[in-house]
Task: structure prediction
Amino acid sequence: MKLIQPSLSTINFWMTIEDTDKLEYALAHGNYKTRKLAAEALEKIAKPCSIPALLKCINDKVQNVSIACLNALGKISPNDELIKTVVNKRFNWVKNVREKRAKFEANKHVKHTIYRWERASKKSFDRVKEQLKRPMR
Result:
């Protein structure tokens, strides 16, 4: 079953009439663009009744959607200590992921020298082989 995704004008219309139920449904069941637009619209409406839907979507697999949800939560309830700690921890996690990705991209073309240690068994095998090549007295 294919769901029809609401357009930007539809989401803007829902935002102007403050229809949080439809925006929360779009946030839960839309594609990633729709989810991001719905989170931004809920941020502009800033009604506390949409906090549970935003909390469900902060662990979205698309980072832009989870960041939009975090921004909306930060604007809707800036004085709530629980939401402050959740938002700060999540933003730190996103920052760490981006730093790791940037570090990987920066070092992608660097060639590393790998040192191979000599194995004692190979060294002794070569020594015995050389002794066998010599004539016996």
